[in-house]
Amino acid sequence: MSVTAPLGFRAAGVAAGIKSGGARDLALVVNDGPARAAAGVFTANRVKAAPVLWSQQVLAGGRLRAVVLNSGGANACTGPEGFQDTHATAEKAAGLLDDSAGEIAVCSTGLIGERLPMDVLLSGVETAAGQLSRDGGLAAADAIRTTDTVSKISFKRGSGYMVGGMAKGAGMLAPALATMLCVITTDAELSSEQLDAVLRAATSRTFDRLDTDGCMSTNDTVLLLASGAAGVVPDLAEFEQRVTEVCADLARQLLVDAEGASKAIAIEVVGAASEDDAVKVGRSVARSNLLKCAIHGEDPNWGRVLAAVGTTDAVFEPDRLNVAINGIWICRGGAVGDDRSKVDMRPRDVTITVDLSAGPHTATVHTTDLTADYVHENSAYSS
Amino acid sequence: MSVTAPLGFRAAGVAAGIKSGGARDLALVVNDGPARAAAGVFTANRVKAAPVLWSQQVLAGGRLRAVVLNSGGANACTGPEGFQDTHATAEKAAGLLDDSAGEIAVCSTGLIGERLPMDVLLSGVETAAGQLSRDGGLAAADAIRTTDTVSKISFKRGSGYMVGGMAKGAGMLAPALATMLCVITTDAELSSEQLDAVLRAATSRTFDRLDTDGCMSTNDTVLLLASGAAGVVPDLAEFEQRVTEVCADLARQLLVDAEGASKAIAIEVVGAASEDDAVKVGRSVARSNLLKCAIHGEDPNWGRVLAAVGTTDAVFEPDRLNVAINGIWICRGGAVGDDRSKVDMRPRDVTITVDLSAGPHTATVHTTDLTADYVHENSAYSS
Q1: CA–CA separation, B171 vs B174, rounded Å?
Q2: What is the CA radius of gyration of chain A?
Q3: B319-337 exposure pattern, b = at least 16 Cβ within 10 A, e = fewer
């Protein structure tokens, strides 16, 4: 179902030959309308790949006819030539669709610092255009995989409309190669401004709270396209809820597929003076290599949680901090609490609850443990 | 020589029995004067161990008669009882030295969240007081080791005075257990205000630029004590230079002894608009798990360097960034530069040069690679 679950969309996924080995590596998603409002959110990294720079320009117009996505190369740090390659890709798709390149977004994922093989890529766009279909969502989701072990798709039904999506990324554990790309579609009728507000709200509470190694990709892109084909103007609150559900579902799939991880860790911050504080604390805990190693070793090391909390400027008093791991409050008032031997660390899912005792706000940040496999995967890659 | 290289200091290191296994675990450093001016810098972590809270209060007075240091337990996150334990330690030393507890600093290192065995610790203080000698610097340096494989000591000669020091810490790779502790002594005559200014300047360019895993300990402490026994008022610039040399020497020893590391990585940032920018960029690169894995795999992955630079707010243009690894400029103008196969990644020392092309300022941050051994050491510890 994926991006073709909503009416008005066709897609295709083909093996263009960008990757060696014959796997699918190029996807095309087309919005046949009648509307073509769209919005996008992009990596905050100041070193942005050529397709990000291109697609940001395109999205400034608030309209998208199509999205071309490739795996097998990120087209990042490739200079003006790399930008020309992205432009040529959009022009190729525009020619095939008899439309304007100015309404065609491009997404790339793979290794940084290498030019894309443009001959095979452009002929792949042509092949994909010839295979566009209402059933193409799954093939498209498959074609954007890099180190992903499975395709990630989701769809949710609203009142008279659908929201569908696909994503790639192995938990952002390796964003320099495993960039998070996501395309979400709907057949509801919305303006680009509405889509933009909804997408920012949805991603800020889902993808943005997935922090597996603190690294930030040069290519991360999330796009939202509305065809209006269902002829329904949705209730905005309900629509935001559906889009958030699709994003949360895809984010969860990314986390489960994280490279080299043996534990999925949810850091629930409660009792925060603000939601910002809660996110800040959650992110600091999620980025502690020491804690992530401890969780890998099934050691409920609350001292490392406190040490991570202490590096933030969130509102809290050190002697009022409480920490539970898998429901056992092993730290109370900043000191030893319940018996740590009561904590069952065996399940794959680990929940760390941090109570700041400073207010009513909460947030949950998701991460994974740090393993020798992570080191192996990220030291063996690339050369 | 260590902390007893300068005149006016005695020290001892004994096996009190805090650690199992009979290794030395308690050190005492005493300033016999005639002066006792002192200064300290402490962890910026808001979750501070009891000995840090105690010693900060003591140093507010600008004078130190002695320092008691123990390994085998950090006395962090131990509540009011832990603070009382630290206080009792200082009182014990004060009684033995016939002095005031208000001029005795305490430093602890080891596991967080456990009370110290006060009976053995206090009798250890007594034993140490009985063994104080002008030759005790090496035994003291040995007694503060945790996972350190070697003692870290240093001394430098000024014009008519000496500066000596000892430190412990395995590269801050595991600050929750391997806290960085450092005691520096001099027989020159200085005020506590002068010592404070010199110590802040020296540590900000040495220990503060060692960033092996981005984690920040609850116990980090650096103390500087001046006995005035040489009867020399030093030239302040020369004195700052000598103290900085001692700190740099000790910092280098910490880095070389970093747990689980196979590479020592220097990140030289040049062409920065300010020194702050240079440090910020160096630190961001030093904290990239992806890059640290790549260096471990001897992969000169400049894309991951750029991705880390791009997360900062330093002044730079992405298309003017240059990166060299071990002297080969493999990234020029934000894109591919010289042939990456020319980079020799085999040496243990790796230098990554980042040219921001934005100004005349520079800074170097030191880190290590990320290895499966790091994961192993930090997941196996504690329980």
Answers
A1: 8
A2: 22
A3: eebbbbbbebbbbbbbbbb
Tell me which chain B residues have a C-beta less than 8 angstroms from the C-beta of A174.
Answer: 290
Those of residues 227-286 in B touching chain A at CB distance below 8 A are: none
Would the CB atoms of A299 and B215 count as touching at under 8 Å? no
Identify the CATH assignment for A264-380 out of 3.40.50.10330, 3.30.420.40, 3.10.20.340, 3.40.220.10.
3.10.20.340
Give me the tens of pLDDT residue by residue for chain A, a chain 383 residues long. Answer: 799 999 999 999 999 999 988 999 999 999 999 999 999 999 888 899 999 999 999 999 999 999 999 999 999 999 999 999 999 999 999 999 999 999 999 999 988 889 999 999 999 999 999 999 999 999 999 999 988 889 999 999 999 999 999 999 864 443 334 478 999 999 999 999 999 999 999 999 898 888 766 667 888 999 999 999 999 999 999 999 999 999 999 998 988 887 778 899 999 999 999 999 999 999 999 988 889 989 999 999 999 899 899 989 999 999 999 999 999 999 999 999 999 999 999 999 999 999 999 999 999 999 989 888 878 777 765 43
Greatest alpha-carbon span in chain A: 68
Question: Where are the CATH 3.10.20.340 domain residues in chain A?
Answer: 264-380
**Contact residues on chain B for A307, CB-CB shorter than 8 A:** 45, 47, 112, 175-176, 215-218
DSSP state of A340: G
Chain region(s) in chain A for CATH 3.60.70.12: 2-256
- Catalytic-residue membership of A368: no
For B2-256, CATH number? Answer: 3.60.70.12
* Chain B partners within 8 Å of A111 (Cβ): 303
Q: How far apart are CA A139 and CA A20, in angstroms?
A: 18
Q: Cβ neighbours of residue B20 under 8 Å, at least 6 residues apart?
A: none
Give me the interface pTM, i.e. the ipTM: 0.86
Residue with tokens 């959009």: A90
Could you tell me which residues come within 8 angstroms of residue B208 by beta carbon, excluding any fewer than 6 positions away? none
List B179, B186, B203, B212, catalytic entry = B179
Token digits of residue A94: 């525009």
Query: Phi/psi of residue A22, each to 5°?
Result: 85, 10
Cα gap A211→A279, rounded to integer Å: 11
